[in-house]
Amino acid sequence: MQFARIDGVISERSGERVVVLDGEGAALITLSPVGAIVWELLPCDAERAVEALGEQFPDVPRAVLRDDVRAFLDELVANSLIIEIDAAG
User: Fold this and answer.
1) Would you state the pLDDT for residue 88?
2) What are phi and psi of 11, to 5 degrees?
3) Is-contact 51 69, C-beta < 8 A?
């Protein structure tokens, strides 16, 4: 499965962080530098995000990265900032 930004969500980079505003203007979230890396990869699948973070942080075990990426993506879905889509169509 792939993840993609929801239409209407606005984001802007501020230094190493990304500030995200939901489409209704109700939620403003500042992503950490690590979250910003994942955000800027979208649309992508979780494994692509894990690979990118693994390149940036080679000392972090892949299992930890997978768990953290999945939790982060789940949080973004819960906050109506991204959606999970079927990559096949």
Assistant:
1) 66
2) -140, 150
3) no
End-to-end CA distance of the chain: 10
Break the chain into its structural domains and give their ranges.
2-81
14-56: per-residue pLDDT in tens? 999 999 998 887 888 999 999 999 999 999 999 999 999 999 9
Give me the sheet containing 10-14, strands edge to edge: 10-14, 17-21, 28-31
CA distance 39 to 12: 11
Buried b (16+ CB within 10 A) or exposed e, 16-51: ebbebbbeeeeeebebeebbbbbbeebebbbebbbe
Stated pTM of the model: 0.90
